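Proteins fold reproducibly. Take a tokenised chain:

. . .
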Amino acid sequence: MKLPVIGILGFGYLGKELAGIENWPTDSWVACKNDVYQEVSSFGFRSVHFDWSRKETWDHLPKIPSVLVLTIPPILDEAGAEKNRIQEWCDWMEQNRADLKKLVYISSTGVYPNRPGCWCEQDQIDPDSSKGGLRLVTEQRLSESFQAVCIRSGAIYGRGRNIGERILNKKAIPKGSQRVHRIHVRDLARIIMLAITSESFPGIVNAIDRESETTDKVANWLVNQSFFPNDKDITITYSNQFQTRKFDLSEPGRKISNRVLREQCRFEYEFPTYREGLKDSFINYS
């Protein structure tokens, strides 16, 4: 399989995983606003200085044909203003980077409202949180200007970023009875790769694993596993000041479907549940 040149807009936790998951073509690049050039080059990518909120940096984006992967979250707090900001960038891209047409946007399952039912990609939705509204506006506007794929990701976790790290660092974990939909960062990177290389990938896909579960149950399961570094006094603590959106809007009947990912995309998970993902995170932990 011949991989296309990619341009990753945003080089955080997910961007680094995507960069390292394959031997991408040598012209592939990363656009980020921070000074991480040496780190980017270690992946074999070239770096460009790009700040989505600063128009003077947009011209730094390479002109070579590339598949864009946008991992940057919304910047403004108001949906109308954010829509106008993205509109300006899309207009600029159409005029100045016409060869960069395919785009994979990493959205969020937060677009789905906190109401009972099994939510899927085809549903007409009206987000009930400001963050969900911002994500949906971004999806819609990007899809008007690009050959866009919107991947609605669950909570992203993996080595170095998971509930066990909080426990080991004696930090409180979120309260809440809402089951959390998750996806391991490596599986999410593999879903993105499939979206990049497939000619028939759906326009919207929920990226969640096979089993949602509450944070409390996951934490208690984890600290009792033999692979967890439990050689010191481990105590799970909670904080009334640290409550997730899912706590504030707890709706036990809210479920999100991963049927499109499993059946239409035929995606095979490396980490089908949090059990496999957390075990991988703490094997050979130091």
